[in-house]
Amino acid sequence: MTGTRATTIRQDARQAAELDAVAKVDGVSTSEAIRVAIAEHIDQRRLDPDFLARLQRILDEERVVLGRLAQ
Q1: Are 32 and 23 in contact, with CB atoms under 8 Å apart?
Q2: Does the residue 3 lie in any domain?
Q3: Distance between CA atoms of 9 and 56, rounded to whole angstroms?
């Protein structure tokens, strides 16, 4: 993968063992199982109207701040 970034997470031992088991059953690495879960989470957020409204509010706020900085 090009343009990748390593991310460290902390999880309890039980969750780590369950994640490893799920990945093994699915025939993928634990890293791949995490990437798939993250991609699915992002896709779900994109369909959530409340999330999209909060996102738009933050974009609007940042646009104002960036506009002031550009002056």
Answers
A1: yes
A2: no
A3: 28
DSSP state of 9: -
Q: How many whole angstroms separate alpha carbon 35 and alpha carbon 54?
A: 24
Give backbone dihedrals phi and psi of 56, rounded to 5 degrees, phi first. -65, -40
Mean pLDDT (whole number) for 28-37 = 97
Is 6 inside a domain boundary? no
Alpha-carbon gap, residue 16 to 23, rounded angstroms: 11
42/47 Cα distance (integer angstroms):
9
Q: Say if 35 falls within a structural domain.
A: yes
Q: Is residue 5 part of a domain?
A: no
23, 30 Cβ separation under 8 angstroms: yes
Q: What is the number of structural domains in the chain?
A: 1
User: Which pTM value belongs to this model?
Assistant: 0.80
Is residue 2 over pLDDT 80?
no
Which domain covers residue 58, as residue numbers?
A: 13-70
